[in-house]
Amino acid sequence: MNKIADVVVIGGGVIGCSVAYHLAKRGAKVTVLEKREGLCFGASGSNQGGVPVSLFLPESPLLELIRASITLYKSLSQEIGYDIEYQQSGLLVCSVDEKQYPYLEKHVQEMQRKGVDIRLLEGDEIRKLEPIIGYDVVAGTEEWESGIVNPFKVTHGLAYAARKFGAEFILTTKIYGIEVKENRITSVITDKGKLATKFIVATTGAWSLEIGQMVGLTIPVRPQRGQVIVTEPLPLNKRWNYINDADYLNIAFNADEAGNYENQRIKLGVAGNYIQKDTGTWTIGSSRDFAGYDNQVTMETTNYLVKRMIQFIPKLKDSNFIRMYAGLRPFCYPDGLPIISEVDNPSGFLIATGHAGEGVTLAPITGKLISELITEKKTSLPIDAFRFSRFKDMETEAD
Amino acid sequence: MDTIICRCEEITEDEIRDAIRKFELRTIDEVKRLTGAGMGLCQGRSCEPLLKRILAQETNRGINQIMPLSRRPPAKPIKLEALIREKGNES
Amino acid sequence: MNKNTQLLSWTSKGAASEGVPSREELEKSPGYPGMERLMKGPVAVIECIQEIPCNPCEAACPSGAITVAPSINSLPKLDEDKCTGCGLCISSCPGLAIFVVDLCHDNESALLSFPFEYLPLPRIGEEVPASDREGKEVCRGKVINIVGKSTKGHTPVISISIPQKYALLVRGIAIKQADSTRQNFLSDSNDNEDKMRILEHPILGRQDAAKTVEVTIDNKKIKAREGEMILAALLSAGIRVNRFTSRYNQPRGLFCGIGQCTDCVMTVNGIPNIRTCVTPVEEGMVIETQYSRGEWD
Q: What are the backbone angles phi and psi of residue A330, rounded to the nearest 5°?
C-alpha cells in the first residue's frame, strides 16, 4: 500500500470503483480501501443489473442523473476497453390493478414531456407481443431507454481501468480511524499502516454510518434488504427481458408509507422485477425490508415474490429455481435520495452513497460528479438535491 | 479447443485464467461472477474444485487458503411453485 | 520344503518411493513371519507396514494369533506359534495385505493363498500367470482352491501352487482380460435392448423381474423396464447423446450419473432440464433431445 494518496476511496463497490476510475483518469493518485477480499461484495454484487428510466416519478431529481448515467453507459465498454455487457433492453412495466390505470396514463404523459420514449399498452396488446405475460395484467407501459448491464463486469471493469491509470486497490483492509487536523482530513489509519491523504470519498454503502462516525458525522444510511430468486436457464423471451411491476414505483420510493399498509406483501416491499439474462436464467425480485445487516433469504418474502410473479409471468411457476440470495441496499432514510456531496467539516471528506436500488444505474455519473467536485470544485449537473447539508435543513424545518 | 472447466456454461480454462489475471482476483466467488463459471444449472458442483485449483495456482496459495463458493439455498433445484405451497398441503 | 531350494528375493527402495515394500520393511514388520516358521508349514504372512487405524485382522483370527496393540494404529503382530495357517484372516484385510504361504505343500511347489477382488474368478485346475507385488508375471501357477463367492461384498481367496522358489515373491495372479467363456454377469437375452443392462450384479445381486413400459425418444418408441431411470432406458437402446449445449453446440450424455452435473438433462413431457439419470421412466413418457435451453410450447 502506498503511504500517500491524493484521494482515498473507502469501499470497493460499483460506486467506489467508478469514483476511483474518474479520479485516476484525471491524474489523481487514488487508493481504494476495501474490507473484503475482493470487490463488488455489497449491494453492487447482489442486484439484478437493471438500469431503469421509467420507474421514476417524472419530477424526481434522479431522472436527469439517470439519463446522464445511461449516456455514459453506452460508451463505457469502449472507453475502458472491456465489455460490461450493457444492453438497451427497454423496460415493460405491467399493472395488475385496474385502479392504477389513470396513474399509468398520467405517468406516460409526464415522461413523454421529459422526452422519454414511452407509450401505454393495453393488457391484450402486451400479450400479443409477449405471450408469456399473464392474464392478470390489465395494462402497461413500454419504454426503450432503459437497459440492463452486468454489475460485476461494471465494477471490476472500472477497477481494471482505474488500475491502468495508476489507482491501487487494497483488499482485506480494516480502517481504524481517520485523522483530522484543523478541520481538514490528513490521513486514514488502517491495519496496514497510515495513509496520508487530502481527500476521502466514503462509498461504503450500507456500512456508511460507521465511517461517518469516525469523522463525527451521522450519515443517515441504513441497510435495506432485497431478496432475489434465480431460475434454471430457460428459453429466451421474445420481446422483453426486463419486466417490472407497476407497484415498484410506490414501494421503492414511498417506503415509509408502504410500511403502513395492512397488506403484508407491501410491508415486505415485494414488487415484481423480472430480468432474463442471456444465459436464459430469470432473476426474480424485488423486495425491500429492514432487517439490520441480515442478508439471509426468508421463506416469507420468497413466498410473496413467487405469488406476485405468478400474476405477471405465470408460466415460470413450473420452472425450477437454483439459487436465492439477498443483499443490502444503502437506503438513505430521510428522503430516499442518494448523497453525492462534500461536507463542511471536516473539509476534504466527500460522501457518495445512499443510492438504495439505483447504485448500478447511477455509478457512471456518480463517479464523474465526484471527480468534478474534487478536481474542479463544480459539477456538470446540479446535485443540490443530493447535498449532505440537506439533512440539517430538514431538521431545522421540522422544528 | 481449450479445456472446458465449467461444463454447464462452457467456460474455458483460458477465460478463467485471463479473468483472474486481468482483474487480480483472489476469491472464486469473483471468478464465478465475472466468468459465469459456477452459475449454471449445476451451480458449481462439477467445477468448484477445478476453480479452486486454478485460483490457487494463479495466486500462489494452497487450496486450503481459498474460500469455497458462497452457499445459498436451495440444496437442489426445486419448482418455484414449491415456495407458495402451504404446509401439509402438497397439491 | 526342499532344502536345496533358494527362495527368490526382490529389490525395492521401499513402499514410499516405489509403491512396493522392500524386504527390509517387511522383515521389520511384526506381522511378517521368520524363515524358521515359514519352513514348518502354512502360516499367515501379514505384509502390513503402515501405521493406520485398522484392526479387522485381529478379530478375524480364531486362534488369537494376531494382535493389534497397544493402539488401533499399531502394526499387527503375528504369534507364529499360535498361527495355524487357516487363512481366515486373508479376506478380512481391507488393504489386501495378508497372505498364507505354505512351503510344505509338496516337494516342488509352495501353496500361496491370496485375496482376489476381480471378476471373473478363475476356475479350479486352471493354469494362471502368477505375478509379483508389482503385478509383473514371474511364473505359472495352478489354481488349487477358491474360497468364497464375490456376492454381497465377500472377498474370495484363491490358492495357487507355484514353484517353491517364488514363495516370497509371488503375491497374486495377472489375468489380462475377460475370456468370453468365463462367467458372464450380463444378461443372456438376445434382445438388443438388454445387452447393456446388468441384470445380475456382483454386489447388488440379481435384479427382480419387472414390467416393460414403452416410452418415446424423439418420436421413436423404445421399451424400458418399469422403475429404471430414463438414462438407463436410453443407454440400453444405444442412445448416448442426451442434449446439445448452448454455447458450443457440443453433445452431452451420461457423466456423473448421480443427478449433479446436469449433462444428461433432456426435455421430458414438454418440460426442459429434467435430469434423466435420477428420473424414473413412466409409461408413455415423451422424451426429447434438448437443444440448448429447450423450447416452451
A: -85, 105
Which of A296, A316, A332 corresponds to the end of one domain? Answer: A332
Domain assignment present for residue A74? The answer is: no
> So what's the pLDDT on residue A257?
53
Give residue-wise pLDDT tens across range C72-88.
Answer: 999 999 999 999 999 99
Q: Which candidate from B10, B42, B45 shows the least CB-CB separation from C248? A: B10
The CB density around residue A302, as the number of other CB atoms within 10 Å, is 24
Which residue range(s) make up the domain with A234?
91-143+222-332
In a domain, A247, yes or no: yes
Contact assignment for B46 to C256 by CB distance below 8 Å:
yes
By the 10 Å C-beta count (0-12 exposed, 13-18 middle, 19+ buried), A78 is classed as exposed
CB contact under 8 A, C260 and B1: no
Q: Are residues A124 and A169 in the same domain?
A: no
CA torsion angle A117 A120 A126 A132 (round to 10): 70
CATH number at residue A24: 3.50.50.60
CB atoms within 10 A of CB C200: 15
Alpha-carbon distance B14 to nearest alpha carbon in chain A (angstroms): 17
Contacts of B10 in chain C (CB under 8 A): 245-248, 250
Q: Are residues A204 and A282 in the same domain?
A: no
Which residues in chain C have Cβ-Cβ distances shorter than 8 Å to B77?
A: 273
**Count of A–C CB contacts within 8 Å?**
21
Residues near A170 by Cβ (< 8 Å), separated by ≥ 6? A1, A31, A32, A33, A34, A190, A192
Into how many domains does chain A fold?
A: 2
Q: What percent of chain A has pLDDT over 70?
A: 96
* A171 lies within 8 A of chain C by CB: no
Q: Judging by beta carbons within 10 Å of its beta carbon (0-12, 13-18, 19+), is residue C111 exposed, middle or buried?
A: buried
The answer to whether B42 contacts chain C (CB < 8 Å) is yes
Inter-chain contact A160–B23, Cβ cutoff 8 Å?
Answer: yes
CA-based torsion, B40, B41, B43, B47: positive or negative: negative
Domain assignment of residue A73, yes or no: no
In a domain, residue A350? The reply is: yes
Same domain, A139 and A231: yes
Model confidence pLDDT, tens digit, residues A31-82: 999 999 999 999 999 999 999 998 888 888 999 999 999 999 999 999 999 9
* Residue A370 DSSP code: H
Helix B13-23 / helix B28-35 crossing angle, nearest 10 deg:
110
Task: Based on the fold, state whether residues A300 and A355 are members of the same structural domain.
Answer: no
Is A292's pLDDT higher than 60?
yes
Q: Which of C246, C273, C294 sits opposite A320 (nearest CB)?
A: C273
Name chain B contacts of C248, Cβ cutoff 8 Å. Answer: 1, 10
Q: Show residues of chain A in contact with B78, CB under 8 Å.
A: 320-321
Judged by CB atoms closer than 8 Å, whether chains meet at A232 and C273 is answered as yes
User: Which chain C residues are within 8 Å of B15, Cβ to Cβ?
Assistant: none
CA distance C255 to chain A (A): 19
A287 and A255 belong to one structural domain: yes
Interchain CB distance below 8 Å, B46 and C248: no
A184/A226 same-domain check: no
A280 contacts on C by Cβ (under 8 Å): 246, 293
Locate the chain C residue with the closest alpha carbon to A238.
Answer: C296
Q: Does A323 lie in the same domain as A243?
A: yes
CATH number at residue A231: 3.30.9.10
Give the angle subtended at the CA of C269 by the CAs of C267 and C274, to the nearest 5°.
40
Q: Are A340 and A307 in the same domain?
A: no
User: What is the residue-averaged pLDDT of chain A?
Assistant: 93
- The reported pLDDT for the residue numbered C117 is 87
pLDDT digits (tens, 9 = 90+) for A267-291: 899 999 999 999 999 999 999 999 9
**Neighboring chains of C (3 or more beta-carbon pairs < 8 A):** A, B
C-alpha cell at A363: 455509478
Q: Which of A291, A307, A332 is the last residue of a domain?
A: A332
